Amino acid sequence: MTALRCPVCGGTLLRQEKVFRCEKGHSFDLARQGYVNLMVHNGSGKRHGDDKRMVSARTAFLDKGFYDPLSRLLCELAGKTEGDVLLADAGCGEGKYTCDILNALKCSGRKAEGVGVDISREALIAAARRDRSLTLAVASSAQLPLLSGCCDMVLNVFSPFCREEFLRVLKPGGTLLRVWPLEQHLWELKTLVYDEPYPNRPPEPEAEGFILSEYRELRYAITLHGAEIGALFEMTPYYYKTSREDQRKAEEAAELTVRLEFGVGRYTKAGDAP
Ligand SMILES: C[S@@+](CC[C@H](N)C(=O)[O-])C[C@H]1O[C@@H](n2cnc3c(N)ncnc32)[C@H](O)[C@@H]1O
Ligand SMILES: [Zn+2]
Question: Cβ(114) to ligand 1 under 6 A?
Fold first, then answer.
């Protein structure tokens, strides 16, 4: 299944060993760590996406199984589709859910391939360590390096939602699985760190151009000890916006029971669905 699109001319990128090349001769090397950089250069020179420290905090934390109920729900929802699957994970991070879903589909006898896209090179290096067979591209979800209409499924977990791009890359009748935090997600962690924590404002589940085939809310609590509390805080987008003094409150806590709350949507691309 060929899916990658040249970020310069929009042509199909074909892989020849360690290089991706389009018909017009634009070429992109596969880095030895297992990803290809297809980022359209924005000239800002700013840090892109999660850094090494955030990525390793998240890998270590996820591997302890605290988010496994979410992963099981995503595998169940992905299993409701039919046929072989080309899955694109937009904002894949280190690819935990990408791999869990692909494995679940393969276990049910289906052919399944995955493309992970993230602006963080460090996250993709970690994803390649999880599974060398993933195609991993540094790029933004706002300009996915994927051909139009090539994907059976798009996965979007805790990462920017780029509705038009997701519609563009999906086949007619294709599936979008989207996860976002509900109001009280990580509430006790916020209470521990901030004097005036505020609840999340979840998005409306409906999305134009998509049929919301199924909406689920998943809520449970986990109990963390010692360094796990700081690791969870480091995984959040709040970490780098928080003073050192407040960061320490999470790092120095001994035990914390914290709520996890996810909104999960299974969508079908509207229109001429098969
Ligand atoms: C909270 S993490 C979630 C990662 C993964 N989906 C998971 O749930 O484990 C958010 C990810 O989105 C990536 N990201 C942020 N902005 C992005 C963008 N515009 N395009 C693609 N990825 C982006 C970050 O680098 C990070 O890996
Ligand atoms: Zn090209």
Answer: no
